[in-house]
Write a structure and sequence with these properties.
222 residues, 4-stranded antiparallel sheet, Rossmann fold, 6 helices, putative n-type atp pyrophosphatase, domain 2, 5-stranded parallel sheet, alpha/beta
Length: 222
Amino acid sequence: MKIAALLSGGKDSLYASYIAMQYGWEITHAVTIKPEKLSWMYHTENIDFVEPIAESMGIPLIERHTVAEKEDELEDLKIALEGMDIDGVISGAIASEYQRTRIEKICHELGIKSFTPLWHKNGELLLREMVGAGFEIAIVAVAAEGLGEEWLGRIIDSKCIDELSRLNKKYRVNISGEGGEYETFVLDCPLYAKKLIVEKAEKEWERGRGTLGIKKVRMEDK
């Protein structure tokens, strides 16, 4: 099975790709859509650093910009996938019907399959599976009650997951970040030949939300 992986650099898209690898599927391409503004379909945090991720995975990266208008961003994904010798596309959709159904629509038009192995999985269980599989996941954006500036740059581990679980009970924070509570960037995982080291990053904080903007990374042997 040959598939293209829709990658944002975040935990869900890369863990979905890891599951594909466990199935024995061949990931032939990474595909990244870069929105020019806030998008319902695509992530924007540190999207420029998918390139070293694809390099570490040893696969070519297909990038396409989009103005992030509802129908245009679908057409841009279709254009990015056209002509690929693949059987399907894998994505990290967990709960967004908007995202999942639109990817399925594009795949149907292209005559390929859409795979969403994380769909409706328990968020806490997924995080623990990721950590157990060797994923090093940094939190790079927060926007929720209980998630202060100190969370920016934090690596998700068992203690972090326990805290997210408590915040879920107290403030209804989605443990997976599916409501936009937080965004992530994967520094290392079994898909990488080399891990990523952040050499320069800048924090921004305003009115209860913030980002960790990555400015420079380097690859390091494991």
